[in-house]
Amino acid sequence: MSDHQEHFQRFLDAGGFHATRQRLSAAALIFTVRGHHTLDELYDILRKNIPDIGKATLYRTLKLLTEAGLVLELHFNDRAARFEVVDPQKRHDHLICMNCGAVVEIQNRFFNTVKEQLSEEQEFVFTGHTQCLYGLCARCRGNENTTTDSAIFGRISTGGCCACNAYHE
């Protein structure tokens, strides 16, 4: 049993939640999936291994995994909830193309150093973070059909960037 699975089992026990076969199987599979996936994408992946899983069960399991701090729910300005397994060893941020929607994970020592300094200066313990940086990817910058700047800024102003659905700079 992985550390994530043990943590989830303890969370379920402490909260009085039922550790059903489907819930535990879904969680075990979710922990092996990398990337940012919507509920529907995860459902399609999980149905191959757990044919009797319902979408509602998967949704409730994702919510519990999020509450347990094992999965992040992210919103990349397209209004679709995406879920990502938390990996404390791989802290990363996201570059999001406002034209094609591409999401690129980045690891940057400078960002991590700044976060550590803020934590020390403010005597603040981070329990997690999401950082979304918006712009145009190289492919879209070279494409003549790229959305105009005014349309991009209009899309940015229509929704938040991350799990808290707020704007960050």
Layout of secondary structure:
Layout: H1 3-15, H2 21-30, H3 39-47, H4 55-67, E1 71-75, E2 81-85, E3 93-97, E4 103-106, H5 109-121, E5 132-135, H6 138-141, H7 149-156
Parallel strand pairs: 3-5
Antiparallel strand pairs: 1-2, 3-4
Helix pairs in contact: 2-4
How are the strands ordered across the major sheet?
Answer: 4-3-5
Radius of gyration, rounded?
Answer: 18 Å
| Major sheet details | 3 strands, mixed
**Count of helix runs:** 7
Q: What best-fitting shape do the alpha-carbon axes yield? A: flat
The CATH superfamily of the largest domain is: Winged helix-like DNA-binding domain superfamily/Winged helix DNA-binding domain
Give the uncertain stretches in residue-range form.
Answer: 148-169
CATH architecture field of the largest domain: Orthogonal Bundle
Percent helix:
40-55%
- Cα distance, first to last residue? 39 Å
Per DSSP, what share of the residues sits in E-state strands of 2 or more residues?
Answer: 5-15%
Q: From N to C, what is the helix and strand string?
A: HHHHEEEEHEHH
Q: Could you tell me the number of beta strands?
A: 5
Average pLDDT over all residues: 78
CATH topology of the largest domain: Arc Repressor Mutant, subunit A
Instruction: Tell me the structural class.
Output: alpha+beta
